[in-house]
Write a structure and sequence with these properties.
With 96 residues, this protein is of the alpha+beta class. It has three helices and four strands; from the N terminus they run αβααβββ. Strands 1-2-3-4 form a four-stranded antiparallel sheet, with no helix packed on it.
Length: 96
């Protein structure tokens, strides 16, 4: 059963998730790019250090509380979407 906690939506509809990030330290940022880094460098003529910021794909942020949040573009809404990938207890939507 997929609960509201794990539902992706635009940030203005997920202020509960964004508010819960206050005071947390980011441990890791992971970009799941549509292109492998070496291919992006060749294909788009960008420097390797720019691949993270200039390629498309979702972004996963891991926090010191154990919370993991995902972000991705949502062109049809001219926005991004936000979702909880893993809660502080380590539970994911697939486990509910």
């Amino acid at each position: 059963m997929k609960t509201f906690l794990y539902t992706s939506d635009i940030p203005s509809n997920r202020s509960d998730v964004l508010d819960s990030l206050k005071g947390l330290a980011i441990l890791n940022l992971t970009r799941y790019s549509w292109e492998p880094p070496d291919r992006a460098v060749l294909e788009y003529g960008i420097e390797a250090k720019e691949v993270f910021s200039l390629t498309a794909g979702c972004l996963i942020m891991s926090f010191d509380s154990g919370l993991v949040i995902g972000y991705s573009s949502h062109p049809s809404k001219n926005s991004v979407t936000v979702w909880v990938e893993k809660n502080e207890a380590g539970e994911t939507s697939e486990e509910l």
